[in-house]
Design goal:
alpha/beta; 255 residues; TIM Barrel; 12 helices; globular
């Protein structure tokens, strides 16, 4: 049985004071009876502080990005080992903003995915289509290609599927990120079910194991309907994760 995961992507927001205030606000409203997993992904410079502030709670901390390199003359980059060293448990790979603003290809995302696993991190593989791609009917082709890149990064398909089974997938329709527009529960479920079926056709055990989150303007007002869908295993929350009351309300709905 897959657990629900509620993950907050703080993007490039916050300072030391706001990080402390936000985590304190979340911790202060946690209920031990909730069964969902909770994850926060602050900017890399605040990960160490977030790890210290969440100690003793069931809140995991993750990073928003990592390098595809191990170490060396790569100014400004942060390796998976470095993230693991300061307490990260998860790392986002292939977020739509990394793909669109920084031109990360499917192949680069796959390389970063592999480095995350090598470092002992859990990759959150972000997949999703633009509005143009949705309107021309290529949503599933785009999503499958993004997933296939991870599988085919490994020369042996069985190994690639095994590696894919160690991740979380976040479906984030690009047209619904930060726009206030949300995919309807039916639209989101349709893609999630298609992802699950695509994985099942290759490896049923992987399909049953992998959590598939919805990421696209999820908030307390729409979380109940989205999380009620059979194949939606949680949410990758953007703006709503920066407000403790709003984020905790989603966690409460996830229960």
């Amino acid at each position: 049985m897959r657990k629900t995961l509620i993950a907050g992507n703080w993007k490039m927001h916050g300072n030391l004071d706001s990080v402390e205030s936000l985590i304190s606000g979340i911790k202060g409203q946690l209920d031990d009876s909730w069964q969902c997993d909770i994850l926060v992904c602050p900017p890399s410079i605040h990960i160490d502080k977030a790890v210290k502030l969440t100690k003793g709670s069931n809140i995991a901390v993750g990073a928003q990005n990592l390098s595809e390199q191990d170490q060396g003359a790569f100014t400004g980059e942060i390796s998976g080992d470095m993230l693991k060293d300061i307490g990260s448990k998860y790392v986002l790979v292939g977020h739509s903003e990394r793909r669109s603003l920084y031109h990360e290809t499917n192949e680069l995302v796959a390389a970063k995915y592999a480095k995350a696993l090598e470092a002992g991190l859990i990759p959150v593989l972000c997949v999703g289509e633009t509005l143009e791609q949705r309107e021309n009917g290529s949503t599933l082709d785009v999503v499958k290609a993004q997933i296939d890149a991870v599988i085919t990064f490994y020369q042996d398909k069985a190994e690639g599927l095994d590696k894919l089974g160690q991740c979380v997938i976040a479906y984030e329709p690009v047209w619904a990120i930060g726009t206030g527009v949300t995919a309807s529960p039916e639209q989101a479920q349709d893609v999630h079910a298609s992802i699950r079926q695509y994985l099942s056709d290759m490896n049923e055990a992987v399909a049953e194991k992998v959590q598939v989150l919805y990421g696209g303007s999820m908030k307390a007002a729409n979380a109940e309907q989205l999380l009620a869908q059979k194949d939606i295993d949680g949410g990758l929350i953007g703006g709503a994760s920066l407000k403790a009351d709003e984020f905790i309300a989603i966690c409460k709905i996830a229960g």
